[in-house]
Design brief:
This protein is mainly α. The chain has a two-stranded antiparallel sheet. Helix 16 links the parallel strand 3 and strand 4. The radius of gyration is 24 Å and the shape is globular. The relative contact order is 0.13.
Length: about 375
């Protein structure tokens, strides 16, 4: 953060700073932490959909989405804050299903959920704001000033000054790297989250194991009432990529990056569950629900294996950009340090420590910034 390159909201960095004091961790262990966050977010998504739709629909919707989501797979392997962003999004959506949001404990939980969401990523307040919009639309039985719980307002009031302070310290080159925003990129972003034709798997298994009696089970009245704001929020959340795609074409601001919208995966899971619930109600009652679960699980495993094969291809030395940055072991050993002018090439080689590397940079102000970032960076000018 001291370089100004990644002056993001501080929760992820503060969390790992405190964790580092008790349990010193490496970059590899931070990647495991991201995986843990993604898994927790998936479990929370499952628990939310199970409470509203039941176990079978929750299992099918959750496993279909998570087995196809490219952003969840990629961010589970990164030492970055997007895994935490995902689990905070799941937490916020889960808090909308409270039976009594006026309870003191629930007020605190709502505050913490929205606070964490906003303090992990700048777009957190966008997702939090869309929750407020869904409450304004759906809670018509209340006066307009009582539809949004006060804890959410407090989070917004607290967050905006922090954002302004952080953005004022942010390096001016943030976001200047190319971000593809063609129409095909928009379609790809949604297609990489969930391929709707995979819903045919549970559909056909029910038809193959049908009975004559209709599946007439409906929503519980309380659950139906609580699910309306979540459905609205889910639609709003999956529209965020489309909104930023349009903004990227109308203005010079381009924030159209798939991982920025990772909370939408929770929303997609919930909406898929809604769709499955509607389909299951129209179909004949099933003889054995385990057939649906087994067939869906098998499909998910196949999808994961296909995605893993694609990932392994990307990590191949012939196709992965990272490997081209690493100095080969065949490089003749010398006691003289290797001077590197290219920043992306300096840091991975300096981290591996196979050779003594010096960073050649002539800008004195940048040298001071890097020194504040880490005393381990060695410069050729020293």
């Amino acid at each position: 953060m001291l370089t100004g390159i990644n002056f993001s909201p501080p929760l992820y960095f503060l969390f790992n700073f405190c964790l580092q004091l008790a349990f010193p961790t490496s970059i590899e262990q931070l990647r495991i932490q991201s995986l843990v966050f993604i898994v927790i977010g998936i479990v929370v998504s499952f628990l939310l959909t199970r409470k509203v739709f039941g176990t079978v629909i929750a299992f099918v919707s959750t496993i279909l989405v998570t087995s196809q989501s490219n952003v969840l797979f990629s961010q589970a392997q990164e030492a970055r804050h997007y895994g935490m962003f995902f689990v905070c999004g799941a937490w916020v959506l889960c808090m909308q299903n409270l039976d009594n949001d006026a309870d003191k404990k629930n007020k605190w939980l709502t505050f913490l959920a929205h606070f964490c969401l906003c303090q992990v990523h700048y777009l957190g307040i966008i997702f939090s704001g869309l929750v407020g919009l869904s409450l304004l639309i759906s809670k018509k039985e209340k006066s307009i000033f009582k539809r949004i719980p006060p804890p959410i307002f407090v989070v917004w009031i607290f967050t905006l000054p922090i954002y302004l302070l952080l953005l004022s310290q942010q390096s001016s080159h943030l976001g200047n790297w190319p971000k593809p925003n063609e129409l095909s990129d928009l379609f790809s972003l949604y297609n990489d989250s969930f391929f709707i034709l995979t819903m045919l798997i549970p559909f056909f298994t029910i038809l193959l194991t049908k009975q004559t009696k209709k599946n007439s089970k409906t929503f519980h009245s309380v659950e139906s009432k609580n699910s309306i704001p979540i459905i609205l929020t889910s639609f709003f959340w999956i529209s965020v990529p489309l909104i930023f795609w349009i903004i990227s074409h109308l203005t010079s601001l381009n924030l159209f990056v798939e991982r920025y919208f990772i909370p939408k995966e929770v929303a997609i899971t919930f909406l898929v569950a809604c769709g499955l619930r509607y389909i299951f109600q129209k179909l004949p009652k099933q003889n054995c629900q385990c057939v649906t679960l087994l067939s869906t699980f098998t499909t998910a495993i196949i999808l994961i294996l296909v995605g893993t094969r694609r990932g392994v291809f990307r990590l191949n030395k012939d196709t992965c950009y990272h490997h081209s940055l690493i100095i080969e072991k065949s490089y003749p050993y010398s006691e003289q340090p290797i001077i590197i002018e290219y920043e992306p090439k300096y840091f991975p080689n300096a981290y591996l420590g196979k050779y003594e590397c010096l960073y050649n940079i002539e800008n004195e102000s940048l040298i001071e910034v890097y020194k504040r970032f880490s005393t381990k960076i060695k410069f050729s000018a020293q």
